[in-house]
Write a structure and sequence with these properties.
There is one protein chain. The protein folds into 4 domains: about 180 residues, P-loop containing nucleotide triphosphate hydrolases (Rossmann fold); about 80 residues; about 160 residues, Rossmann fold (3-Layer(aba) Sandwich), CATH 3.40.50; about 190 residues, no CATH class. The chain contains 30 helices and 18 strands. Helices cover about 45% and strands about 10% of the residues.
């Protein structure tokens, strides 16, 4: 029986009388065990399993709880419990009622919305503000639905961004037509599914004896309305307001915060005994999170005994020094790599750790952000490296030329084949010292069965590029005669020519990567990537975002250059990276996690990096949330409470790429790791 293993707090919660019960389950206090015990208690009291509804935020969580119930009761009994996410339960009940549901993915519906959006005449308005794209409108409407606003969509949009008030009626009209079109074809998206289910609850009613809700602090207004819409005798909600970190996605902390006011005779239970972390780690977490407003009184209590080290603060002169030193510290650690986590607030923070771990031969798996070795700029640099040592690598060539304007995979292959012909099987010779051939693009007979005619490739003179400042030698290359090669592509080919010419004879991996980094070709690739990343939903380019993107690309390029240090042979370097790089995001190894991805997990040894004011807390994201620091503080709390035994906090004083000096995060002051007046604390990396 699950109850026998509970502490006094858990037992009181699990055996609470029917009613409106809220369980504040602090980090590491055994919330899952309490929910499982509650289900077991109800089943032992004669409640039928089909009269219980368990709502979770992942299907994995519900499956785990049902499986644990099945250990104490017959597995067939456990599987009769209605358990799943809000969407899964809504779909299941609506489907069972005979409703026809054609669930469509957002990507498909955005295309439908785009077809409606394109018909509207926004140019009628004399405004410098570009209207939102169809994709952005879809995302904004999704947020609007989750927040269950009493306002119309257009009015709500105007309040979100007053500059767009002139378009509010058009936005509303677009969505009215979109809703009608979806209704005609029977399409629903995930929010529609919940809204339709809410209507069903209001009209038909669905009854359960008890509804259990996990991660209650992450519910939004739409999900909250579903919970209230059920006909039920009892409500059992489990959550922790200090772990509410999804405000950006519509989660409303006031739902858990106002539980006692919204429900008559509500009872609040607190689970305060932490079974995860050492006393030193919990003390640090408590000091920081108590700076947030206290909605319900609580304080984490230590249950673990033993001699555990105090959390350590590591301060570095420069960002790269931080990443390198942490990787080295992990290498020297006696903790299994699978039980070590590096937790970051910003995705860029993980790149340096991942790259330096790879340099030391340590595998890692990354969740929350793109792997360093999977990023487009690093892949492009490795393709540029590969083509030097393997001129027959078609895929590397195609990937490089994907960044040329107007060049798809088919035409890139045509260029490769042409260079291959004029270079007698070597595309490097084909670009540097081509043999004069009349038409390297000629494919021969198109219809092999009839043999009627050769494919016609229009030729033009390379003289059309003479005023572009290209070398005479490059202008003589027969591939420039192709009519499809315009000035943009000619410039890209010339950049490729310059790169090959200056790099092909180098042997040192570091010299090659430095040439790649400084080449005009990589500059063009970087600009293309940065422009795409800075493109707003309305199609305009945010120059500040583009500048930031270019800085991040440069940072990755320098990290790759750092990885060349142990290598003298270019073949060994590229083999090490291409063979090892792809394994970093899978399998076993050190865990590299964003804070959101780390939630619910625990590790023996944890590193929280880049604790500089501006990066953590992230001031840019705070500015979008009325300057509130509370959610950033909750993020810090979640990160700290992932650690069981060993906790390292770190920051760097300087970023040599951005040329920015940093000061420590205010959370380090709140944690009593730094005294506010002592800004020049001695550097310590040990």
């Amino acid at each position: 029986m699950p109850l026998s293993k509970l502490n006094q707090e858990q037992y009181a919660a699990a055996t609470a009388p029917y009613g409106n019960n809220l369980i504040i389950a602090s980090a590491g206090t055994g919330k899952t065990s309490t929910i499982v015990a509650r289900i077991g208690f109800l089943l032992s009291k004669g409640v039928k399993p089909e009269d219980l509804l368990l709502l979770t935020f992942t299907n994995k969580a519900s499956a785990e709880m049902v499986e644990r119930v099945g250990r104490y009761f017959d597995e067939k009994v456990a599987k009769k419990i209605q358990a799943g996410t809000f969407h899964a339960i809504s779909y299941k009940i609506l489907k069972a009622s005979g409703k026809k549901i054609i669930l469509k993915q957002p990507k498909e519906l955005k295309m439908v919305l785009k077809s409606i959006h394109e018909k509207r005449n926004f140019s009628y308005f004399d405004s410098k503000v570009m209207p939102y794209s169809a994709g952005h409108l879809y995302d904004m409407h999704s947020l609007y639905q989750n927040m269950v606003s009493s306002e119309g969509f257009g009015e709500w949009m105007s309040k979100q961004n007053p500059d767009h008030a002139i378009y509010s009626e058009i936005y509303e009209d677009i969505y009215e037509e979109f809703k009608e079109l979806k209704r005609r074809f029977g399409y629903v998206d995930f929010n529609d599914l919940l809204i339709d289910f809410k209507k069903y609850l209001d009209e038909e009613g669905v009854k359960f004896q008890e509804i259990l809700v996990d991660e209650y602090q992450d519910t939004n207004q739409l999900q909250g309305s579903l919970i209230d819409g059920f006909d039920r005798e009892s409500l059992f909600c489990v959550g922790d307001y200090d772990q509410s970190i999804y405000g950006f996605n519509g989660a409303d902390i006031n739902i858990i915060g106002t539980f006692s006011q919204r429900f008559e005779n509500a009872k609040v239970f607190s689970l305060n005994k932490n079974y995860r972390s050492s006393s030193h780690i919990l003390s640090l977490a408590n000091k920081v999170i108590e700076k947030n407003p206290r909605i319900y009184p609580k304080k984490l209590e230590v249950t673990r005994t033993g001699d555990f080290p105090s959390p350590k603060l590591m301060i570095f002169d420069e960002l790269f020094d931080q990443y390198s030193a942490i990787a080295q510290k992990i290498k020297n650690s006696k903790t299994l790599h699978e039980d070590i986590a590096v937790i970051f607030r910003n995705n860029a923070s993980a790149d340096g750790i991942e790259a330096h771990l790879r340099e030391l031969g340590i595998n890692s798996k990354r969740k929350g952000g793109t792997s360093f070795f999977d990023s487009k700029e690093v892949k492009a640099m490795l393709d540029m490296f590969t083509i030097l040592i393997n001129p027959r690598d078609l895929m590397s060539f195609v990937h490089i030329f994907e960044y040329a304007k107007g060049v798809g995979g088919v035409f890139a292959k045509d260029i490769f084949d042409a260079l291959y012909k004029v270079g007698d099987g070597d595309i490097l010779k084909g670009i540097m010292n081509p043999k004069e051939k009349k038409n390297p693009f000629k494919r021969g007979i198109v219809n092999h069965q009839l043999g009627l005619f050769d494919e016609i490739i229009e030729e033009e003179s390379a003289a059309r590029f003479k005023k572009m400042g290209f070398e005479e030698k490059f202008l003589k290359n027969p591939i420039l005669k192709h009519s499809k090669i315009n000035k943009d592509l000619a410039s890209y080919l010339h950049a490729f020519y310059l790169y090959i010419n200056s790099t092909v004879f180098l042997e040192s991996p570091s010299q090659i990567v430095r040439n790649i980094k400084d080449s005009q070709l990589f500059e063009l690739i970087s600009d293309r990537l940065a422009t795409k990343r800075a493109q707003l939903k309305d199609g305009t380019i945010d120059e500040e975002m583009k500048k930031e993107a270019l800085i991040n690309i440069k940072r990755k390029a320098l990290l790759l250059l750092d990885l060349t240090k142990p290598y003298k042979d270019k073949y060994r370097f590229i083999n090490a990276l291409t063979l090892g790089g792809g394994e970093l995001s899978e399998g076993e190894g050190v865990n590299l996690l964003s804070i959101h991805a780390s939630k619910g997990l625990e590790f023996k040894e944890v590193y929280i990096v880049d604790l500089m004011d501006g990066r953590f807390p992230n001031r840019k994201l705070m500015s979008k949330n009325a300057g509130e620091i509370d959610e950033e503080r909750r993020l810090f709390y979640v990160a700290v409470t992932r650690a069981k035994d060993i906790l390292y906090l770190s920051y760097a004083k300087y970023d040599r790429i951005k040329k920015i000096e940093y000061i420590h995060s205010p959370f380090l002051v709140e944690a009593a790791m730094i005294k506010e007046e002592n800004l020049n604390i001695a550097t310590s990396a040990n």
